[in-house]
Amino acid sequence: MNELQKKPPYAMIAILFVGAFIAFLNNTLLNVALPTIMVEFDVPASTVQWLTTGYMLVNGILIPASAFFVQRFTNRKLFITAMILFSLGTFLAIIAPEFWVLILARMIQAAGSAMMMPLLMNVMLTAFPIERRGAAMGMFGLVMISAPAIGPTLSGFIIEHYDWRALFEIILPLAIIVLLLAIFKFRNITPNSKAKLDVFSLVLSSIGFGGLLYGFSSAGAKGWDAPIVYGTIIIGVLSLIWFVLRQLKLEEPMLDMRIYKYPMFALSSVISIVVSAAMFSGMILTPLYVQSIRGISPMDSGLLMLPGALAMGIMSPITGKLFDKYGARILAMTGLVIMTIGTYMMSNLGMESDYFYIMAIYTVRMFGMSMVMMPIMTNGLNQLPMNLNPHGTAMNNTLQQVSGAIGTAIFLTIMNARMDNVAEKLFTEATKAGVVPTTVDALAQFKAQLGIQAMLEGINYTFLIATIVTVVALVLAFFVKRPIATKQS
Asked: What are the phi and psi torsion angles at 435 (to 5°)?
């Protein structure tokens, strides 16, 4: 154990935590405000979506390159630059006179926030010895999980009482305080090297991850048969294959694929992808059920999901300590059993399911998830030698982004396909029974009722598929072992 690990820089880590919390909160803060922004700038839904799509694409491009940035630049320079960009983007969003300025502001914010998670994780891996990393990463999980989950509830309240610009006005002073504290309190603790950036790798990675993120994110709105959807996915896949082959040949790869020689890291990646896909599906399907089928307001919908977010946040540091004591396998298996039960219960929702019952099973599901994500990720990173940590964290964060987008797109497609089949079947049965109204208004109302019934069936069916997906992750968790730290590779 080195001197730094005996006495970790807690003040510096606290500043990093607050900076990361603000950045992660910002990820989901704007979603509820999109309809209001559409009206103010007179833009259609397909255009306003770029406020989240653009943000996500910049993240998808910069996070894979974060391994290079973390190795090449000191953590002090990197964090201060990230906070300056984030603050600048936030200020620009407050004063945005035109819609394109707001999109530019969001992209500048994203350029700052993309560095936060990889930087914080690398500082934690450097500052804490392997036997104390669980507790440290548990605290990090508190930030990573609770901030995006609180976002929709907080923004729902603000939009109901204030202007959408208030979302950014709240964040800017906090970002400036964090920036000032970083200037005075930060020191350099992560190891640096004269790493060179392979520009062609950056281009391939940007096209690859950007193409996948855009293609899968657009599939829900545009449909899988739209050339822009399957075109960007195909280009993304081909670019990524080329990117991986290039990394294997380079002496100094941008993203070192040797991390997959370590079996626990490889296994943690697969489990994380499966759990991320299931988590994001729940975050999309639950509000859809609550708002579209039950007619509950967005604010109440956000409040319904808040206890789940708080449960994850509270459990994260506890899970970290349990991880240090018992390892990842028992935690992941317990969490995935709870998650599987919770997801299965979500597949049996009805037209009259009680609000607090939905809240309870959603919270149980999130409670189970809190026992899986950080322990599995930390277990994989613990097997990597110190010099490969930046590559491991960059890969983990990139996969989380991409699997979230892919999981959401696939689960929404399953829901829509089931919904269409059920709606057609119900209408055919009603026609045969002779109960279809003949007047135009009554027929429209009748079809709307069938549509709600079909949507419920679609959501329940999709949660059933998500249950099977979590069972796959549970089976994989049986193979998790506590790794022995590897010396420099």
From this structure: -110, 10
> Which residue range(s) make up the domain with 339?
261-489
The model carries a pTM of: 0.79
Same domain, yes or no: 461 and 407? yes
CA angle 406, 483, 315 (to 5 degrees): 60
Provide CB contacts within 8 A for 67, sequence distance 6+. 118, 254, 255, 256, 390, 391, 393, 394
Q: Is the domain of 189 the same as that of 212?
A: no
Distance from first CA to last CA of the chain, Å, rounded?
19
Residue type, 56: M
**Residues 318 and 454 grouped into a single domain:** yes
* Cβ–Cβ < 8 Å for 376, 275: yes
Among 23, 135, 11, 83, CA closest to 397: 23
Counted domains in the chain: 3
Cα–chain-centroid distance for residue 230? 23
pLDDT per residue over 49-93, tens digit each? 778 778 877 887 888 888 788 888 888 888 899 999 999 999 999
For 255: left if phi > 0, alpha if psi spans -120 to 50, otherwise beta; the answer is: beta
